[in-house]
Every structure is written in C-alpha cells, then in structure tokens.
Known about the structure:
By secondary structure, this protein is of the alpha+beta class. It folds into two domains: about 5-215, Hypothetical protein, domain 2 (Endonuclease III, domain 1, Orthogonal Bundle); about 225-365, Nucleoside Triphosphate Pyrophosphohydrolase. Helix content is about 40%, strand content about 15%. The chain contains 17 helices and eight strands. It has helices at about 5-15, 25-35, 40-55, 60-65, 65-75, 80-95, 105, 115-125, 135-145, 155-165, 175-185, 205-210, 275, 280-285, 320-330, 335-340, 345-355, and strands at about 225-235, 245-250, 260, 265, 295, 300-305, 310-320, 330-335. A hairpin with a 3-residue loop joins β6 and β7 (about 310-320). The longest helix has 16 residues, at about 80-95. It is elongated, with a radius of gyration of 26 Å. The N and C termini lie far apart (about 80 Å).
Amino acid sequence: MTFSDTLLKWYDEHRRNLPWRGLHDAYRVWVSEIILQQTRIDQGIGYYHRFVETFPDIYALATASEDEVLRVWQGLGYYSRARNMHETARNIVANHGGSFPQSSAKLIKLKGIGEYTAAALASIVFNENVPALDGNVYRVLARIFAVPHSIDTSPGKKTFRELAMQLMPDKRPGEFNQALMDFGSMVCKPVNPLCNDCIFQDQCLALQKQSVDKYPVRNIKRKVRERYFNYFLFQTNGPAGEPCFFIQKRTGNDIWKNMYELPLLETSSQLSEEEIFSNPWWKALFPAEKDVLIGKITPPMLHQLTHQRIHARLIHLKISSGDAKILRNRFRLTDNEGFNELPKPRLIEMLVMQADEMPTGTKISDCNIQT
DNA sequence: AAACCGGGGGT
DNA sequence: ACCCCAGGTTT
C-alpha cells in the first residue's frame, strides 16, 4: 500500500461529516476555507452556517455593505478575512462573470487567498493535483518523515511542498488533502497524539526516535505588545430625548480596522484619573468644559490577544446637549439599537454591556483636577 | 524575513 | 502559562 492508499482508506472510515464536505460549490468551499483559517472547526462551524445563510451566493456577498459582512464576522477575529472576502466577491462579480477562476495559480491572485487556500479550493472543487499545507499537514509530514526543516521559513516550506507533492495520488487530490488534515487533527494531534492507534506507527520516524514532540520544527517566537485603551462613554440625550452615546469607526492599518468603538485615548502606560483629564487629548476635546459629569472609571480590564495585551477601561461621563454639540464634529451619535447593528470587537461589546448604569458622579470642576 | 492581525479552547 | 487553530498581508 502506498502512503496515499493507507491514508485514504483511513479517511473513508473516519472522516468527519462537515457541512461543506462533498460540495463542489466553489463559493461555499471558499467560505469554509476562509473561516477556518487559524480557527478551530468547532468555533467556525456556527459562523459558516450564519454566513452562507446571510449571504447565500457570491452576488449576495458582493452587494452587501462592508458593515454587514463584518457584523456577521463579529467575534471571530482576524477581521481582514471578512474585508478581503468582501473585496474578492466584488472583484469576481465585476471581473470574472461571478465565477471563481478554476486553477490554484489564478485563485492565489485573489485578495485573502494565499498558497494554502488556493490549493485547497483548486483540489477540492476543481480536482487540481496540488497539495494544501496547513498546520495539520506540516505536523503529520514532519513527524512521519522526521523533517528537520523549520515550517516557518521559505526553504522549509518548499521542502514540505515537494514532499507532499510526491505523496499525492493521481486521483482524489481534494480528498487526499482533507484526509491529511483530518488525520492531523484527530490522530496526529499537537499534544497527546494517538500514536498507539496510528496507521503509520510502523513507519513514523519521529515515533521510532521517541521524539514525536520535537516535530514540527518552528523558529518563530511571538512578541506581545502592551497597549492601554481609555474608552469614553459620553452619554447624552438624543433628538427625541432618548439615551445616546458617541462612537467612532477605526481607520488605518491597526487592529479592528473599519470596526466601531467608543471614543478612544490610547496611551503608552496606565494613566491616573488626574492624568486622563489633564491629557492634551482631553483638553483639546473640551477646551472649557463645565457640564461634564464624571461617572465611574472602571479598573483596567485585560483583553488578551495573541499579539497584544490590551488594558482597557471605561470612563463613564454624562454630558449636556451643549457639550454634545462639540463632540458631533469628531464622533457619531448613536442609541443602543443603532449600535447593536454595527460591527464591533469583542472588547467593545463587553465594555458597553457592563456599562448599563447611568453615571451618578460629580462635576469635573468639583473634582479638584487640573484641567 | 519579520511583523502584524483575534479570539477561543485545550493541556 | 503556554500552545495552537483548514493562514494571509504588509513592511
């Protein structure tokens, strides 16, 4: 039995039943592949159903607004995936007659589709003989063949690509790729792999060397950035007297691009209350404020991400309609219902949710704070 | 090549 | 506390 015969036999018996399995609808397979980038299947599967229900085909996605697309993506993270999908959907409708190009070489030119996704789509949907290497595949191959090369360097990746290409059967390329991934996530797991039940235990070089945990070889060490976000909840009354507050849309190439948040003062360290209200940002906002009422300033809340540790706190403020006019130039006024429909990062969702109580504080001018 | 981009779950 | 997840883009 060849490697692929052994693997495909295992796959025929043990493969998982996933919603997009067996589909040859390029759109749905594409949606599943993008959602599953750096995302566990258990977490992504609900998003997949919601996404294809909200946007049943490429035209529905192309005609939607970016806000709508990001809203469906809310809570999943790596939001550039959603922005790129939206752009690619519009590109395919505008320039490709609404159909995906049918080769990995052309697919990889689309925004948000890299080497892995192009290969996965082409092999699954168009039966192209090209290996799709994700984290699972790197791990499986690295262990069975004791590959010494690092998986996060270009030469190392090339080695794995060539190895996978040699193992690939002439038929069923898409199932071969998915079989490697299923096998990696179900048997050849990152920790506590099921080597005793493994179909490759007689040929696995890492197992023979009792060094399964040494593979795959990685070089990259991640660095975590510390950030301090001071969010302001400026509460005021709207045109009809309803409770409203100010928000803004994040721009620039930073985290949560094009998503909504509260007015933000970012600092390089934790500020005291006094320092917040003597900060140039605040003084420029309210050159001569009189009516601002301080509510509560929450203790810093830690939002732990892969590459950042965000220390966020919320400053509750009640402002007069006069002061609100000053803010309208820089921020957008919304009520709770309006804000609910806008895409926002998890952190903002949490902050606003626990900020339901109205501020009952004192005027800044009574606080003995130098402003 | 290295940095950047979320959030969650497993151990 | 640390690792990893059906990776990709930007610098």
